[in-house]
Amino acid sequence: MFDVIIVGAGPAGIFTAYQLLEKGFSGKIAIFEEGKTLEKRSCPKNITKKCVQCKPCCNITAGFAGAGAFSDGKLSLSREVGGDLPDLIGADHAQDLIDYTDKIYLKFGADEHVEGVEDIEKIKEIRRRAIVADLKLVDCPIRHLGTEKAHALYLKLQHYLTDNGVSLFSESLVTDLIIKDNVCKGVVVGDKEYYADITVVATGRRGADWLDQMCRVHKIASESGNVDIGVRVELRNEIMEEVNKALYESKLIGYPKPFFNKVRTFCQNPGGFVAQENYEDNLALVNGHAFKEVKSQNTNLAILCSHHFSTPFNQPILYAQKVGQLLNMLGDGHILVQRLGDIRCGKRTWQKELAMGNVRPTLVDAVAGDITSAMPYRTMISILEFISQVDKIFPGFGGSETLLYAPEIKFYSNRIVMDDKLKTTVENLYCLGDSSGWTRGLMMSSVMGVHLANTLTK
Ligand SMILES: Cc1cc2nc3c(=O)[nH]c(=O)nc-3n(C[C@H](O)[C@H](O)[C@H](O)COP(=O)(O)OP(=O)(O)OC[C@H]3O[C@@H](n4cnc5c(N)ncnc54)[C@H](O)[C@@H]3O)c2cc1C
Fold first, then answer.
1. Which pLDDT value is given to residue 413?
2. Ligand 1 atom 30: the closest Cα is on which residue?
3. Residue-wise pLDDT tens digits, 390-435
4. SS3 sequence of 296-322
5. How far does the centroid of ligand 1 lie from the alpha carbon of residue 57, in Å?
6. Which ligand 1 atom lies nearest to the CA of residue 275?
C-alpha cells in the first residue's frame, strides 16, 4: 500500500515526487515506469546507425525522465509556450511556478545562460519582418540544457528521489487503473495490483492512447482536443544564423490561406540533429534535438498544422495515426524525407539527390521519397504556404534544397476534464503532463507536477 502512486517517470511524474519531498510529505511514494532507469537507457542506433525498434519500448521516449531524457532540453520560460495549463491554474500563477521550477532545474545543474533576452534590437527587427509576413513572433526566453546535459541533470534527480525514499519500479508497465464506484484505488502491473490513496497518471505522449482507453473504460471525463500534424524542416545554419543567435528558437504562429488552420514552428535546434522516435504499433515519428557541444551544419525545426474534429468524427489521435502509418508505409517503416524544390516540381526525391546539395540530412536512415503522396491536402498546402511566409522573414528558408521530413505528429488529444487543483471526475485520480492534454513541453509538464504536489500538501 502506498500513499501516492505515480504512473510514468517523465518530467511531470518526477517533479510531482520531487515537490512532495520538498514540501515535507512523509507518505510512501511509488513511481511505476514502463521503461528503464536512466543509466540503462541508450539508443542502439548510436552504434547500429539505424533504428532497431527496441522492444518492449523505445529507449528514446520511455524510461526515467520520459521523453525529456534525450530531448534537446530547451526549457521554455514563458507561460505563453508549452500548453494550456495557464488557462486552468491562472496565467500569473503558471508564470510564478515556471520561475520556481526553473530554479530547481538550476539547482540540478542547468546552464545559467538564457537565450532570447539579449539582442533586443535584433529581436525587434525579426518581429517587424514577421508582422509584414502575417506571422506572430512569440516572446519566449529559453534555457537550453542540451541533450547530453539534460541526461545528466535527470540522472541527478533520479538519484535524489530514490535516495530520499521514493520507490522507483522501472520496466513496469501499468496496464489498468483500479477504479471502483468512481474512486481510484491504485494500478495494475502485470498480474499484481498496487493500492494507493492517490493515483497520478503522467504517461506522456506515448501513453496518451492508453489513457484515452482508460477514460473510455472507466468513464473518466475527457474532451477531444487538437492534433498537430506536420513536417520537420532541415536547412543550413547559414540561413538561420541571425535568428539562432538572437533567439535560439523562433516561435512563429500563422493562419495561412486558404484553410486558416493554425500553423506554427516548434522545437528549433540550431546546429542540431533530426531524430526518429518510435511509438506503439511501430509508428515512427520524426523529431529533433541539439547537443550543447557537438554541432551539425544544419538547423532543424518542426512546422505543425493543428487539426480539430467535431462531428461525426472526433478521434484526432486515430486520424493522425492513420496519416503517420501511411507515411511510414511509403518510407518502408522509416522517416520520409523530400526536398522542398521537388515538392514544388511535383516529383519525389531520390536518395542520390540528397547527397548532391548543400543540406546533408542528419537523420541518415531517412528514406527519400514523396511526402505529398500521404500528407493530407489541407495539411500540406497549409505547411507550404506557411513556409513561403517564413521565407519572407528568413530568406532562403523556402529554398529548393530545404529538407522536409515526415511524419512529425504531436498527440495532445483528449484533454482530461479537471479543476484548478487538477482533480479529475474520478476521485483520488489526477492526470498530469502531456498525456493529460494540458501541457506540451518539459517546463510546463514539470510545472504541472509541482502544482499538484503543492495542492496535495496544502
Ligand atoms: C526527441 C524529443 C525532443 C524534445 N525536445 C523538447 C525540448 O527541447 N523542449 C521541450 O519543452 N520539450 C521537448 N520535448 C517534449 C518533452 O520531452 C515532453 O513534452 C515532456 O517530456 C512531457 O513530459 P511528461 O512527463 O508529460 O511525459 P513523458 O516525458 O513522455 O514521460 C511519460 C513517461 O510515462 C511512461 N509511461 C507511459 N505509459 C506508461 C504506462 N502505462 N505504465 C508505466 N509507464 C508509462 C513513459 O515510458 C514515459 O517515460 C521533446 C520530446 C522528444 C521526444
1. 57
2. 204
3. 999 999 999 999 999 999 998 775 799 999 999 999 999 999 999 9
4. CCEEEEEEEEEEECCCCCCCHHHHHHH
5. 13
6. 1
Residue 206: inside a domain, yes or no? yes
Instruction: For residues 184 and 301, state if they share a domain.
Output: no
Task: With beta carbons less than 8 A apart as the criterion, state whether 131 and 249 touch.
Answer: no
List pLDDT tens digits, range 243-266. Answer: 999 988 889 999 999 999 999 999
Q: Kindly state if the Cβ of 275 falls inside 6 Å of ligand 1.
A: yes
User: How many angstroms separate the alpha carbon of residue 263 from the centre of ligand 1?
Assistant: 22
Q: How far, in Å, from the CA of 51 to the mean position of ligand 1? A: 19
Between the CA of 275 and the centroid of ligand 1 the distance, in Å, is 15
Residues 29-55 have pLDDT tens digits of: 999 999 999 988 888 777 776 777 788
Please indicate, yes or no, whether residues 370 and 404 belong to a single structural domain of this protein: yes
User: Is residue 55 included in any domain, yes or no?
Assistant: yes
Write down the pTM of the prediction. Answer: 0.82
- Pocket flag, ligand 1, residue 66 (CB < 6 Å): yes
Q: Which segments of 263-418 are extended strands (E)?
A: 263-269, 273-279, 283-289, 298-308, 336-339, 367-368, 403-411, 415-416
C-beta of 410 in contact with ligand 1 (< 6 A): no
Q: Are 71 and 147 a contacting pair, CB within 8 Å? A: yes
**Relative orientation angle of helices 442-456 and 11-22, to the nearest 10 degrees:** 40
Split at pLDDT 50, 70, 90, the class of 65 is very high
Owner of C-alpha cell 512546422: 303
Residue 259 sits in the same domain as residue 368: yes
Q: Which domain holds residue 18?
A: 2-110+145-222+416-456
Residue 415 and residue 437 in contact, taking contact as beta carbons nearer than 8 Å: yes
Check pocket membership of 35 for ligand 1, CB cut-off 6 A. Answer: yes
pLDDT in tens, 164-188: 999 999 999 999 999 999 999 999 9
| Judgement on whether residues 192 and 276 belong to the same structural domain of the protein | no
CB of 206 shorter than 6 A to ligand 1: yes
Do residues 181 and 314 both lie within one domain?
no
Q: Cell numbers of 225, please? A: 482536443
Locate the ligand 1 atom nearest the alpha carbon of residue 269 and give its number.
8
Residues in the chain: 458
Distance 144 CA to ligand 1 centre (A): 17
Instruction: Say yes or no: CB of residue 277 within 6 Å of ligand 1.
Output: yes
Q: CATH number of the domain that 8 lies in?
A: 3.50.50.60
Same domain, 203 and 299: no
